[in-house]
Structure formats: structure tokens, C-alpha cells
Amino acid sequence: MKVFQCNSCDYQSISNKYVCPKCLKGKLEELEVPSTGTVYSFTDIHVAPSEFADIAPYTVALVQLDEAKGKVTVRVNEPVQIGDKVELENVEKGAYLYKKI
Amino acid sequence: MTNVYVHGIGMTQFGTFIDRTMKDLLLDACIQALEDAGNPKVDAVFVGNFMGGSIYNQEILGAIVANELGLGFIPTAKVEGACASGGIALRQGILGILSGEYNTVLVAGVEKMKHASTADVTQAINAAMDNDSNEKHAGLTFPGFFGVLANRYFYETGASKKHLAMLALKNREHALNNPLAQFRKPTTLEEIMDARMITNPLGLFDCSPMTDGAAALVISKEKSAIHIRSSAQASGPTQMQDADDLLSIPAIRESGRLAYEKAGVGPEDIDVVEIHDCFSMTEMIAIEELGFFNKREGWKAVEEGRTKSTGDKPVNTSGGLLSRGHPIGATGVAQIYQLVSQLRGNAANQVDNPRLALAQNLGGTGSYSTVHILERV
Ligand SMILES: [Zn+2]
Questions:
Q1: Are strands A85-92 and A37-45 parallel, antiparallel or unpaired?
Q2: What is the pLDDT of residues B317-329, one digit of tens each?
Q3: Is A46 close to B244, i.e. CB distance below 8 A?
Q4: Distance B157 CA to ligand 1 centre (A)
Q5: B295-321 pLDDT, tens per residue?
Q6: CATH among 2.40.50, 1.10.10, 1.10.1740, 3.30.300 for A35-100
Q7: Do B241 and A82 touch (CB under 8 A)?
Q8: InterPro entries attached here (chain A) (predicted)?
């Protein structure tokens, strides 16, 4: 999994930014980290927009990556609780699909 | 101190008006505001609106107002900032006066939503998220963001779904006394707790409804009894995964901080508040971010009834977005309608002799926030 690390402070994001939004001066540099992480929070979406209606209810989680400061928003293939260990299973249509370990 | 004053306010009934057009609602609110202000000469018009283009096929709202009301060939604009469109329209009007370009500005907000299907409206509302992101592709929705936030809030504090229900019930009880509110049917904690799940843990009563409605204000550098003591705006992360602290919405905190600083007052000085409760959880976070209660302790204040109209920090005496209704572009303007009514002493759920009032209007999942502090002078 790719994350972007500021070269002048501890800011990290799953997506690149032109200038670091935290220190307002650093540039972000690409960093490869393991996809494993811990569920920081989650929701089960029962009322879905039309493009996801066929898979509702589904679970979206905010995952704290184990070896990075950054968090990533993912879809999980089963219900989860805060603290559950999860890892990347697949990338599909631009979405990170995770599963419980 | 802006030295800009509110001279007139207008607002339509909020609710379902299949037989009324967007133009009809918009002009109705504007005419009320102009009459309330004594029909002054207007130098510019700013209209807050979010989805007139996408679900109603109607733009050029500013020019329509000027033309239909016979205001002359004055400059006008439609302002879009998702659910903060109304608050930003007001701020643009204030800045126009502060620049010296205008003396008097008509600010309005309108939305027409109930003619469209829920699926079409949901799709249109999703325009207020960053759609070119892995987060959107994962299926995160607008309410979903606040569901994720709520589950973490419960995890880190002693709060539970019951506290969100108490907050939603409080706003419903306020709406019962507001003749312009969308929902005036009494409910119970049990009904709120047992309602259909939208996005865990948020149920139907935790989410603001689709609403038709409009509101308008006349503001001017000429003096009146209602001074806009400060106007502030901030932006924040447009994606959940970019939040440094999930239980913080920096745009709310920063716009509040700037508004207090410009006004030379603090949260303890504010007598009555309108907050952007697009979801029950949003009001919970906002009462903390605006400094009314300690971080992660807002739920205690709700439990103690401190944010009821009878409490020491009355929040959403109008019924809020949850029960007064949320015609998106009109919301930020309708908040000011309620606060001016409070300062004039003739509001629904009138609080005792308020002097300072604060309105906070949020756009997106924390993308935009405006704060205005009003003062009775
Ligand atoms: Zn940095």
C-alpha cells in the first residue's frame, strides 16, 4: 500500500497533496507500507446510493495502518468492530477491499 | 466588528410544496425580507443554492430575483458551498458592503428537493463529497461519514445512541413550537431509538430530511438594532481519511475561533445558538468545537438538558435542520432568521433577553463552515 509522507513534519496521507497541509511547507514523498491495519471506526450502510444499492447493507471502515501514521477508508466484506485486525484483499474500481485477518 | 446590520428577515414555511416552484418560494422569502426592512434600495443580490442546477434545471437565481422584484440592473450571483451555500452567500454580502461597493444587499437561500426521488437527491448530495477518491469508491456516503464518526465517539466517551436520540428529541420538541418548521409531530425517545437504520448507529431521526423552502435577509451599513458583530469562514479536509482527529471538524473549530476573535467575545458570552445539525452527531461535535463544552463531553451537556431552549446554552431553538427542515441552500439564511427573531424577542422558543447569538453553517462533511455572531444593539 502506498502512503505519502511529508519530508518536513510527521504528516501522512493516503493521497498526495501539492504542499503539506499540516506544516504548509513540506512536500509529500511516496512510501510503500504493509496494508495490514486495525479498524479505527466503521459504519454499516443500510441506505445506499444507487451505484451501491445491490450490495447494501455493506460495511465501510476507517483503518489505521499498522506501520504508518496514515488512515485509509476501505470496504470490508463482513461486519467489523473497532480494534479488529484487517488486511487488503483486493483493489476494485478504485476501492480498497479489506477482510478480517 | 463588521458594522453591517440586519434590517429585514423573511422565510417561507419549510416542508413539502409540490405545487410551489423554486422561484415562487425564493421570491416569497425575498419580498418578506424587503417589506420587513421597509423596502430600501438594494445594491446587490446573493442567493445561496446547491442543487437547483442538478435536480431542478434552474440557475441564474440572482438575476431572476433582481428582475422579478424590479431591483434594476444591479449585480447578483448564485453562491454554492454545498449545505453552507446560505452562510457563504451572507458572508459574500457582508464582504461586498465592507469593501465599500454596496450599501445594502439582499441575501437569500432556496432549495427545491421534494419533487425529486430520494435516489436522485442522494446522488445530487454526493456532489458535496470528493468523488474522485478511493473513499467514495469504497461506498462511503454523506450520512456514512457521520456514522463512522459516531461509532468512534461512542468508543472514546461514555456516550451511546441514546444521547444522539436525546439531542434529536430536543430539536423535535423545539420544532413543535415553530410554525415554520417541517416536522411538528411529537415523538418519543423510544420511537427515535427504534427507527429504521440508515447507517449504523444513525437511524432515520438522526438524519436531516429533504425539504422545500427559502429564507432571505436584507443587510446594510445603515444602523439597525441587529449588528453582525463578526463573519468568519474556514475550510477543512474533504475526505474522512485525511482527518487528523476523526472527532474534530477543523472547519467548524477554525471558523468559530476566527468569529470569536473578530467579535472580541468567547463561547461563554453567547446567549443563543443555531448549529448545523445535518445529523445528530454533527451537532454533538459542533457544540464541542465551538467551545461551548469540553471536547468529548458534549454528550453530558445533552444529557443534562443544557442545550434545550430552557438550558444555559440553548442550541437550535428553531428545531434545527433535523426538525425545522433542511432546504440546503436556505439553511444558513434560515439560521439567521431564527437568531434575529430571538434578538428581537419574538422567536419560537424565545429565550430570556438574549444579547449575543451565534450561527454555524456547515458544507460537505467538514469542507466548509461559516460562523456569524449577531448582537442586539
Ligand atoms: Zn508537513
A1: antiparallel
A2: 999 999 999 999 9
A3: no
A4: 30
A5: 999 999 999 999 999 999 999 999 999
A6: 2.40.50
A7: no
A8: ChsH2_C (IPR002878), NA-bd_OB-fold (IPR012340), Thioester_dehydratase-like (IPR052513)
